[in-house]
């Protein structure tokens, strides 16, 4: 099962993931880093959005397991 | 063989200079160019190489490094303040960025919306009450981002005029190098006093919160100055360029007015096609690195031809077309890697509010100078328009 993995240590808080899918990603109020709301994409559309987020995340903090 | 001079003139405002496209489409995608400073730099034009370069710690952002790419003969005024976020490499960059990024999250930006809406509304009121034609750059594009960042930092309203005057002196093409240095000094001295006042009497604004979390006042000073500079002319230029582009496409503008959900994707496309701040994506190599079959040596200056990359046909379908509904965010108009624009979601929101409000409030807005006769900033560090005369009809 594909799962999103987020490494808050690498994250620079650009918020690109939140713009891509606010249902899956959030940013912590404290230091702006990524918070996963939904690690397992619910359907193909959500998976597509997750793939986009992985591609555009500027700090390469996001990945997908296979 | 000497490297050809870097070309910056765009034949068409929304296409990269031909020379940059040629470099991108060459076998390696990388070539050497001579900068106005006399430095010989590597210039890379492919999105894939630029993303690799901007995420590789072997390339440094230390703008005080003697070989960091410079676009003027004059030395930037780095002696006036401590290095700020944009100049820091790991391991210093991460903690400095995390100390402030909470101020710029998507959610925090949404909280600023009502106040930005009010600032934009007031400037449009003033515009409508004033003479026609008028220069939109001075009336709207420049003051809006400046006032927004002033409020966010916690600059008292009464000092906004001082701020605007010194920021304009800093940005104007007619200011001498000494004049620019003076403007930086004025702003620095002002901010230093403001920060001292907020240390004594804590305030609930960005500067106050940085101090409250224990940041060194001299680091808060560098950060305040960076925030002031980084988001002012950039956002202003995108406002002006966006207005021209939309006015030149009445059909698409009408669609946008009908459906505000189209505005954000349109902004993303405008950011991509104009890529106004590509020279901010410069670095200096601190180790030997091989990219695209070329060996870049430690100490070599490197440019990311980000505009060419944002028109890279291997990354964007029909890359040379403006498609306002494309909505692609894999561009590098805000940079890439750890330094990707901290203010990007503020910039997106300012642009969204300005476009939505301006075209709703003044539906008859039109250019008073043809788009192809506008003074584009072909010689500037950040691309844009010097002056944008607009006019409109009396309401029926
Ligand atoms: C459309 C408007 C804007 C554009 C095109 C733009 C572009 C950029 C680019 C290309 C970078 C990367 C520089 C590098 O890699 O060295 C950057 C960084 C930065 N920008 Fe923006 N910017 C805009 C608006 C803003 C605004 C509104 C603010 C803040 C109020 C801002 C604050 C910053 C800061 C602080 C950095 C440095 C971040 C770091 O080094 O971690 N920018 N911007
Ligand atoms: S896109 Fe990447 S860097 Fe930006 S907030 Fe999300 S995980 Fe962090």
TrEMBL record, chain A:
It comes from the Bacteria. Its cofactor is [3Fe-4S] cluster. It holds the Pfam family Fer4_13. GO terms for molecular function: 3 iron, 4 sulfur cluster binding; metal ion binding. Keywords: 3Fe-4S, Electron transport, Iron, Iron-sulfur, Metal-binding, Transport. InterPro entries: Fe-S_cluster_ET. This is Ferredoxin. It comes from Actinoplanes philippinensis. The lineage of its organism: Bacteria, Bacillati, Actinomycetota, Actinomycetes, Micromonosporales.
From TrEMBL, chain B:
One of its GO terms (biological process) is antibiotic biosynthetic process. GO terms for molecular function: heme binding; iron ion binding; monooxygenase activity; oxidoreductase activity, acting on paired donors, with incorporation or reduction of molecular oxygen. Residues 1-31 are annotated as: Disordered. The keyword Iron applies. The keyword Oxidoreductase applies. PROSITE patterns: CYTOCHROME_P450 (PS00086). Keywords: Heme, Iron, Metal-binding, Monooxygenase, Oxidoreductase. Residues 17-27 have a biased composition (Basic and acidic residues). Residues 1-10 have a biased composition (Polar residues). Belongs to the cytochrome P450 family. This is Cytochrome P450. The lineage of its organism: Bacteria, Bacillati, Actinomycetota, Actinomycetes, Micromonosporales.
């Amino acid at each position: 099962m594909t799962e999103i993995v987020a490494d808050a240590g690498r994250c620079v808080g650009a918020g690109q993931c939140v713009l891509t899918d606010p249902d899956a990603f959030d940013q912590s109020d404290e230091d702006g880093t990524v918070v996963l709301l939904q690690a397992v994409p619910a359907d193909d559309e959500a998976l597509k959005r997750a793939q986009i987020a992985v591609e555009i995340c500027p700090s390469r903090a996001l990945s997908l397991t296979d | 063989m000497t490297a050809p001079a870097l070309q910056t003139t765009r034949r068409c405002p929304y296409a990269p200079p031909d020379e940059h496209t040629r470099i991108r489409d060459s076998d390696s995608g990388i070539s050497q160019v001579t900068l106005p400073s006399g430095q010989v730099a590597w210039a890379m034009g492919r999105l894939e190489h630029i993303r690799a370069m901007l995420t590789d710690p072997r390339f440094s952002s230390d703008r005080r490094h003697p070989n960091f790419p410079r676009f003027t003969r004059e030395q930037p005024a780095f002696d006036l303040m401590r290095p700020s976020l944009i100049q820091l490499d790991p391991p210093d960059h991460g903690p400095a960025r995390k100390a402030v990024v909470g101020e710029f999250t998507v959610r925090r930006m949404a909280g600023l919306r009502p106040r930005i809406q009010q600032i934009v509304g007031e400037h449009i009121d003033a515009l409508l009450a004033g003479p026609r034609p008028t220069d939109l750059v001075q009336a709207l594009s420049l003051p809006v981002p400046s006032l927004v960042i002033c409020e966010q930092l916690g600059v008292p309203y009464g000092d906004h005029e001082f701020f605007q005057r010194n920021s304009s002196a800093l940005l104007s093409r007619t200011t001498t190098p000494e004049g620019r240095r003076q403007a930086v000094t004025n702003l620095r001295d002002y901010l230093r006093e403001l920060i001292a006042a907020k240390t004594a009497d804590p305030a609930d604004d960005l500067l106050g919160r940085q101090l409250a979390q224990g940041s060194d006042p001299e680091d808060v000073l560098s950060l305040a100055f960076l925030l002031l500079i980084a988001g002012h002319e950039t956002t202003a230029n995108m406002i002006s360029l966006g207005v021209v582009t939309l006015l030149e496409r009445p059909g698409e503008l009408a669609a946008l007015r009908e459906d505000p959900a189209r505005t954000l994707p349109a902004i993303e496309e405008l950011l991509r096609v104009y890529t106004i701040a590509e020279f901010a994506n410069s670095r200096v190599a601190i180790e030997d690195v091989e990219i695209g079959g070329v060996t870049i040596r430690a100490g070599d200056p490197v440019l990311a031809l980000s505009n060419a990359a944002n028109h890279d046909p291997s990354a964007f379908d029909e890359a040379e077309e403006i498609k306002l509904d494309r909505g692609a965010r894999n561009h590098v108009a805000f940079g890439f890697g750890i330094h990707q624009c901290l203010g990007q979601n503020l910039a997106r929101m300012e642009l969204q509010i300005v476009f939505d409000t301006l075209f709703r409030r003044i539906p008859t807005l039109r250019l008073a100078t043809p788009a192809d006769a506008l003074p584009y900033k072909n010689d500037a560090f950040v691309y844009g328009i010097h002056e944008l005369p607009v006019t409109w009809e009396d309401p029926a």
